[in-house]
Amino acid sequence: MQPVVQRLSSLRRLLRPLALTFVGIVLLSLGVAYFFFFIYRTATLPPVFSFITLQFLPLWARGLVFAALGLIVLAIGIWQLSGVAVISLDARDTSGEVVLAYQRDQLHPRMTVISGGAGLLITASLGRTAQLLTCITPVQDPVEYYYRASSLFNFENVVFVVPTLEPHEVFVELDDGQRFNIKHNIAHDERLAQRHVVNIYIGDEHGPIATPLQVTRVALDAIAAADVIVFGPGSLYESILPNLLIPDLRDAIRRSKACKIYICSLMTEPGMTTGYSVGDHVRQIVRFGGFTPDYVLVNAPRIDAEVRRIYAAAGQMPVFLTPEEYEETAVSTTDRLTTRDILIEGAKVIEADLATAVVQLTASLDHPGEGRTVRVLRHDPEKLATAIMEVWKRQ
């Protein structure tokens, strides 16, 4: 009761104006009533007017009905008015300034990331822009790997949680019928380079697991509390889709009102996403996750020719937006700007510069003294953070 009284007390400066307004409305209503009474007595009106004016009720009942409706509308109006900040113009400020509006400070959002591998570590750098960043690791990975890897970085406000109490194996089925454990390193198997995945499930080579999976409470709480849920960056079938195969976690994501952002892969993956476009990636999330991301961040095709040749030699092609994929455009209007958003599968697609070419040093486990350097394309943490925060502000 106290919050209601406190809110209504904000109208104390409006008591006299409201009283005068009420008296004016009553007098105006009497004038309108006499006018309609005159027309009703002197003119022939359609039968519908008899129903509108409640002629089928006695006079006292009509008055009671209209009075009750009037009080309800008046109460709603007063309640909405009490939510408006009221500033007396008679109050003089020595600064000579008048406050015209208030704007609530935008707090850092609570973020939950669903990804894996190096992509999850890249997204973990978002912790400095979030109240709390919860990274849900893939169902097939032990969480210890991420804590050990994160010890090499100075992450802030970041925690890693597992989706289930124990890891579970994830298998994919290729377009030729072969089934592989997702840990098979399919992308580096030259025999499978021209293949692509048609199905993914939690289980073994014989089929999906039959027993239900128990989701951890921390994972469900992270989804429920999130303002933003980020999917990626990372391999579509290794890092993102495995957790969407868990029914309870998938349902929690679907129920969540958080802004859902999918960071699309930079390159196709041989044997898994060969020939995939942006739309194909989004459609797999819709298929296995049962929801459509609110936004899809796509790297604009600004890729160095040398880097492109290196990836082409490995059977990988850039994943970017083509006009043929445009389903429709949606007009977004704000106070200052009107823009057209590209929609694919109902998700708004935003193209931006999200990647950076880096020199990667790799070493052989069999021959530790041997190593090689190669230029690779990676999502840039700074660029990703900027893009995600811009989408959050836009939302």
Quick synopsis:
This protein has 395 residues and is an alpha/beta fold. It has helices at residues 2-8, 15-42, 47-52, 59-82, 117-123, 143-150, 217-225, 236-244, 247-255, 278-289, 305-313, 381-394, and strands at 110-114, 132-136, 158-161, 170-174, 179-181, 197-204, 207-208, 228-231, 259-263, 295-299, 328-333, 338-344, 347-352, 355-363, 371-379.
What is the name of the CATH superfamily of the largest domain?
A: CofD-like domains
State the CATH class of the largest domain: Alpha Beta
Q: Count every beta strand, where a strand is a DSSP E run of 2 or more residues.
A: 15
- Uncertain runs with pLDDT below 50, 5 residues or more? 334-338
The SS-based structural class is alpha/beta
Overall, the morphology is: elongated
Taking all Cα atoms into account, the compactness measure Rg is: 30 Å
Written description of the protein model:
The protein has helices at 2-8, 15-42, 47-52, 59-82, 117-123, 143-150, 217-225, 236-244, 247-255, 278-289, 305-313, 381-394; strands spanning 110-114, 132-136, 158-161, 170-174, 179-181, 197-204, 207-208, 228-231, 259-263, 295-299, 328-333, 338-344, 347-352, 355-363, 371-379. It has 395 residues and is an alpha/beta fold. It folds into two domains: 2-82, no CATH class; 110-353 and 381-394, Rossmann fold (3-Layer(aba) Sandwich), CATH 3.40.50.10680. It has a nine-stranded mixed β-sheet, with helices on both faces. Helix 7 packs parallel to helix 9. Residues 334-338 have low confidence and may be disordered.
